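Fold it.
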Amino acid sequence: MYGPQSGIGWPQVYRYPPLFLLLFIPFALLPLRFAAILWAALKFTVLGLLARSLFSRLGTHGLVWQLLSFLPALPYLAVEFHYGNVQFFIFALAGAALLCLDERPVLAALALALAISVKVAPLFFVPYLIVRKRIAVAALALALTAALTLLPAGYFGWHTNVSLLHQWVQQELGIAATAGEPGIIGFPSQSLHSVLMRFLVSLNYGELTDSNYPKLNLGSFDPLMVELLWFVLAGAGYAGLLFLARQRSQSDNLTIHGVAFCMLLLLEPFTQMGDLVILFWPICIAVAVLRDDADLPAWIRAALYAALALTVLKPLVPDRTMQRLFQVLGVDFAATCLLAAGLIGKCLWKPYSAAIPAIPNKDSGLAKRRPAGTTQPKTTMRE
């Protein structure tokens, strides 16, 4: 799979740790067509289980509401399933970990550890769990990650496993630190890093397979300075997420998790189209919020409606030139920002509650105020 004999170039950009090679062996032993069918069938099965669990937690019952939850996420699911990437399984493992935190903490730690061991991005959730006071789960996830990372040594041998890990780390660091967009991934990505690069650096699309993306840069700054700007903004954004997660009560779990998924997409160095399958969780939360909270502030509802409209309408534009323009403009980036803003607003918003009844003193002539919906007890002439 790796190396000059892979047939897809070297050094290879899309790499996984050695553990993924072990997990993939059963598929490699099967005929290609059957392996592809099995891979897709597993994805549909996992999607069904994840959706059922999430809908149950949200109280999203009835076919209409469930279809409305799927519809805005359908373009991202279709793209990821078509690519045949492992990203959906990584998202499902992280989602399962968050859903199992209270009832099955050991299973949650194992799911998160497996996700981190295959693709490092879910490490994003370890500090998040710590500030959410799930320290034991976070610590166990790290320990299991270390064990799973070393596990392939039993198959490859210690030195080969270390060599593969070293190559993978070097490749990851090279991708994360590069200012050479968009050539490193081949098309405009939808992260904050990529959007800053497209608007503030003069990029060269000529070497891409599709060189017809429009150049819309507003300036031609030093890429290293833009990298530094992204690093500062990403650090501030992550710190803000941790602060929000620490302040909000456990009753906000599903919504806070939705914010965390959005922030992962926004703050990581590169967000490919297949990575946007993560938006399935925030979209389900947004639909439930719009359904249940009729007295939400107008700006929160507007942000969520706008995000859902963008995800539904963008794929319906048939023109390839417009689709290229949408990618360069960062329409999916904007939809993710709107989802994050709406869900953050939902977390911070406190619904109106009835005024606390005033308790009069003995000499006061004030009548006690009662919440709406209660009846005034009958009084006697003496009273």
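Residues 32-58 form the longest helix (27 residues).
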